[in-house]
Design goal:
The chain is of the alpha+beta class. It is built from six helices and seven strands. It holds the Pfam family GrpB.
Length: 165
C-alpha cells in the first residue's frame, strides 16, 4: 500500500525546475510542435507536493500515435492510468524527482491538466483548499487520497475560473 507524503514545493523547487528544463528540451527535440507544460503541484507556487514532476504534452490529433511511439522509447507506460484514443500516461520513477508525463490531444476530454494549474495559480483560496485536502490524507493510503482528489477536481471543473479556460 502506497502512503501519501507531502513536502513544501519550495523544498524541491530547484530539482524540479532543472528536470523540467532538461525534459522540455528533450521532448521538443523528439516532438516538434508539441505544447509542453509543467503541471501538477510543483507548478503551483506555495503548494504542498508529493515531490514529483508532472509534464503535460499537448499534441494535435494527427500527432498522437507518433507521440506515443516516441515517448515509449524514453519512458515506461503508466499502466495504472487510463488509456484512450486521446490520452496516455508515462512515468520515470528513477528520475530525481520522479517524473509523470500526461500526453493529451489538444481540446480533448483529458486536456485539463494545464487548466487545473492555471486555476490554482490564480486563486489562492482554491490552492489552500487543495492543500487542506492533502494535509487530511498525509500518512494515509494513496488510493483514498486519489478518490478525494478526484472529487476536488470535479468540483474545481465547475468553478467560473475553470469554465473560462
Amino acid at each position: 500500500m502506497d502512503i501519501v507524503r507531502y513536502a513544501e514545493g519550495a523544498a524541491i523547487g530547484t530539482a524540479v525546475h532543472k528536470l523540467f528544463s532538461e525534459q522540455k528540451a528533450l521532448l521538443e527535440s523528439i516532438l516538434p510542435g508539441a505544447d509542453i507544460q509543467h503541471v501538477g503541484s510543483t507548478a503551483v507556487p506555495n503548494s504542498l507536493t508529493k515531490g514529483d514532476l508532472d509534464i503535460q504534452i499537448r499534441v494535435q490529433p494527427e500527432m498522437f500515435e507518433q507521440a506515443i511511439l516516441a515517448l515509449s522509447e524514453l519512458y515506461e507506460s503508466n499502466e495504472g492510468s487510463v488509456q484512450t484514443a486521446e490520452f496516455r500516461a508515462f512515468k520515470d520513477d528513477s528520475a530525481v524527482p520522479p517524473l509523470g508525463i500526461q500526453l493529451t490531444v489538444v481540446n480533448s476530454e483529458f486536456d485539463f491538466f494545464w487548466k487545473f494549474r492555471d486555476v490554482l495559480r490564480g486563486n489562492d483560496n482554491y490552492r489552500r483548499k487543495y492543500d487542506a485536502l492533502k494535509k487530511r490524507f498525509e500518512g494515509q493510503d494513496m488510493e483514498s487520497y486519489r478518490e478525494a482528489k478526484n472529487v476536488f477536481f470535479e468540483w474545481l471543473m465547475q468553478t467560473p475560473e475553470f469554465e473560462k479556460l
